[in-house]
Amino acid sequence: MNFFIFFSYNKKKFMKKIFFDTEFTGLYKDNQLISIGLISEDGDTFYAELTDYDKNKVSNWIYNNVILNLKFQNLTEKNLLINKSKKNYEILCDKKTLKEHLTMWLQSFGEELEIWSDCLAYDWVLFCDIYEEAFKIPKCVYYIPFDICTLFKVKNIDPDISREEFAEIQSDSKKHNSLFDAISIKKCYEKLSSL
After folding, report:
1. Strands 113-117 and 16-24, how do they pair?
2. Virtual CA dihedral for 18, 22, 70, 75, nearest 10 degrees?
3. Domain-by-domain residue ranges, the chain?
4. Class of 16-194 per CATH?
5. What does the pLDDT look like over 110-154, one tens digit per residue?
6. Rounded CA gap, 192 and 195, in Å?
7. Contact by Cβ (8 Å): 104, 110
8. CA 92, CA 82: separation in Å to the nearest integer?
9. Which residues lie below 8 Å from residue 182, measured CB to CB, with a gap of 6+?
10. What is the pLDDT of residue 6?
11. Lowest pLDDT segment from 4-8, 98-102, 111-115, 187-191
12. Rounded CA gap, 43 and 35, in Å?
């Protein structure tokens, strides 16, 4: 019996990790997703910008720090698949189309995935909202998400530390772009894991 419990625990320990970040209209109830970026531990990326969020909900700070860092901000097409390789998946779309493409990308790994974010309380709610609720997320996604803020705390490092500084990323000019931030989260996780 103890062997079975140990074996089950270790199985979960070695799931493929996906690091992700979201950008959204603001820190208030009923905020809306603007973009999402994900990167696997192997370096495969997924990046989407949404076309159907309410632009009237965007504050000046969000406009100057998020909207201006969007990769496809000047494109006007509603659903435009820019790149569909597993290594570099990019799409400009509405939330319904995002759900379809993100599900395909996640399922393409062919295994259960462990999801990591930063300040997870914001990102996980928006991730689940893509699927309408937590019970409808793809079955390949492990239902317990993980947060590098907690990992910083466990390693006795101030969770408020600059992610770019800690990860030794030279430029933070794209900070608040969801894919750039997901890459920063991945690099922070890798450094934290080696401490």
Report:
1. parallel
2. 90
3. 16-194
4. alpha beta
5. 999 999 999 898 899 999 999 999 999 999 999 999 999 999 999
6. 5
7. no
8. 7
9. 19, 20, 21, 37, 38, 39, 45
10. 47
11. 4-8
12. 19
pTM of the model: 0.90
Q: What 3-state class would DSSP assign to 46? A: strand
Q: What is the pLDDT of residue 13?
A: 62
pLDDT tens digits, 27-58: 888 899 999 999 999 999 999 999 999 999 99
In eight-state DSSP terms, residue 145 is: -
In the block, tokens 């062997």 appear at: 3
Long-range contacts of 42-47 (CB under 8 A, 24+ apart): 42/16, 43/87, 44/86, 44/87, 44/88, 44/89, 44/109, 45/87, 45/88, 45/89, 45/179, 45/182, 45/183, 46/89, 46/90, 46/101, 46/102, 46/105, 47/71, 47/89, 47/90, 47/91, 47/178, 47/179
Please give the C-alpha separations between residue 60 and each of 25, 55, 63, 179, in angstroms, as whole numbers: 10, 11, 5, 21
The residue ranking higher by pLDDT, 85 or 194, is 194
Residues 6+ apart with CB under 8 A from 70: 34, 35, 49, 177
Which residue type is seen at 155? K
Give the residue carrying structure tokens 């993100």: 102
What pLDDT score was predicted for residue 187?
97
141: its two tokens: 């996604």
- Tokens describing residue 48: 């989407």
